[in-house]
Amino acid sequence: MKRDEKRSSKSRVVRSSKPSGTVRIISGRFRGRKLPVLDKQGLRPTTDKNREMLFSWLMPYTIDARCLDAFAGSGGLGFEALSRYAKSCTFIELDKYAAKNVADNIQLLDLSVEQAKIIQGNSLDKLNILEQSYELIFLDPPFNQNLLTQTIVRIVEKSLLAIDGVIYIECEGQGAGYSVPENWQLIKEKRSAQILARVYQRTS
């Protein structure tokens, strides 16, 4: 083998579509279950600590809720909601391998199509095809891509957040410069150097 060929083979990066990590469901009917997730750049499942905090906030709103996980990634937020007796969850994920991973975990948990479904594609496009409103929406997009403002506009235009429904928004700690409608009331907030997490409720 030539020296430059050897160097080239060493520097080659192979992208794997196989799960190489896990996310643990904290509470509810699937408590303790560990779901396989991809270990890939840009995919950052919400930590156990942050999910526990979030779902303590969302406790009054989760049971029987129709949920939308608009940037699903690992699907950890949607699966946690389903474990805590949400009625259903629609997952949207751009990456085809991550979307397949979510689909595999839907099967692993033996969830019906009425309970959980995955839509693979660009969230900004796929929000336009949704035909119902949701009582609980998760917005945790990739950081530093300025996706929140456009996504919120789509949600408002399509009336995807039900009246009295709640929406969780997570972004960079310095804030992503987004704004929300006047009828979205801030009810919870936590800020750190890395993450800004907020829950709003639609009042009218």
TrEMBL record:
Its EC number is 2.1.1.171. Gene3D superfamilies: Vaccinia Virus protein VP39. The keyword Methyltransferase applies. Coiled coil: none annotated. PROSITE patterns: N6_MTASE (PS00092). CDD domains: AdoMet_MTases. Pfam families: Cons_hypoth95. Residues 1-20 are annotated as: Disordered. Belongs to the methyltransferase superfamily. RsmD family. NCBIfam families: 16S rRNA (guanine(966)-N(2))-methyltransferase RsmD. PANTHER family: METHYLTRANSFERASE. This is Ribosomal RNA small subunit methyltransferase D. It comes from Paraglaciecola arctica BSs20135. The gene is rsmD.
